[in-house]
């Protein structure tokens, strides 16, 4: 197939083109437009990586869950050095620069580029087009007849001021299925030619899809991690004949009696066979199936489950995490043993834009206030010495249109509700959450008001009558 796009130096046309490009990618790749959930039950590295661009594989031994996003694997104890999470790469293979004498003729740079693409992760590189000043900007075409439809190549101006600096964006929607025989080379490399229309010059682009884990080619025979009775590949043991177990530690040929089989299926001499939730078959535990197909036992002795974790709000791991061998693996924005503790801080933000008014700690999305402060954001302290002083400028500008904050009253003091009464005798009585205040105003008179904290900020009742004759 041949793909082409005309580059316009006009900024407005480029903006429209980029918008169309974004819409095109969204339509072509809806599976990447929404957040993927990595299959924690993936049986191989290839299956894990093909599930989504955010999925990573752990090659460390003795891991119950190997497929998760990077943060999930790190929370489960998988070191960064044991994680496999390719994101593709761009390699400039040939990049000959033009001389001054060549500036008068058409020239492309670089001349050869190699791309490794992980589906869902786009790769970008730039082309510089050198050409005579009196020649119009040519149209770029691509000859990609041997490349699968899942690979998309688009062009755009990298710099609106320089229409000859071209950004090339390459992305693959997905890996080809194993049953797809339309292309004998399912993952490449494929050669693509990019050239200005009517010119013999071209840029060679070689594309390879990353649809297989590199670790599958690193098979360690007779691995010590597999007790010397199997091959280690991508952190998992493939046991040789007559051996079984997670570390190939069981020799099924040496098991001659039912009782001996059972001994190999106990986590300790006095432990239940297969933890009481499975049967021992030739020294290997086969775990029971649950009525709910989403619930399952796992582990060498069926000692783990994905449902026997702490609950919150009547949900396993509070509905905000995954249960792994009795332990909750929480989502990024949640924490706690049952994943019920939100790391969201917005509910703790006080009207002064400080967490818990600087008078407490935000824990699980709620303020734990230091005495004598109280309230949802620790702003309630009716009898603190600075309560009246803290709000006097907002009270003055809201009630009388005076004071230091009068010009910014709506922006700064919007949190405060004001009710006017005639005299100080009409103010609410002090007590509970109500604090009575007597403060000097900008006109050198005293005015009186009450203040109390509310969920929306604060409420103040102000006496319209001031006292200008006494101190």
TrEMBL record:
Please state which protein family the record places this protein in: Belongs to the integrin beta chain family.
Signal peptide location: 1-33
Q: What is this protein called?
A: Integrin beta subunit tail domain-containing protein
Q: Where in the cell is it found?
A: Membrane
Q: State the organism named in the record.
A: Solea senegalensis
Membrane topology per the entry is:
Single-pass type I membrane protein
Alphabetical UniProt keywords = Calcium, Disulfide bond, EGF-like domain, Glycoprotein, Integrin, Magnesium, Membrane, Metal-binding, Repeat, Signal, Transmembrane, Transmembrane helix
Which stretches are tagged as biased composition: Polar residues? 184-194
Q: Where is this region: Disordered?
A: 175-194
Recorded GO MF terms: integrin binding; metal ion binding
Any GO BP annotation = cell adhesion mediated by integrin
* Keyword Membrane tagged: yes
Gene Ontology terms, cellular component aspect? cell surface; focal adhesion; integrin complex
Name the Pfam families on file. Answer: EGF_2, EGF_integrin, I-EGF_1, Integrin_B_tail
What InterPro entries does the database record attribute to this sequence? EGF_extracell, EGF_integrin_1, EGF_integrin_2, Integrin_bsu, Integrin_bsu_tail, Integrin_I-EGF_CS
What is the superkingdom listed in this entry's lineage? Eukaryota
Q: Where is the Integrin beta subunit tail domain?
A: 388-471
Q: What is its main location?
A: membrane
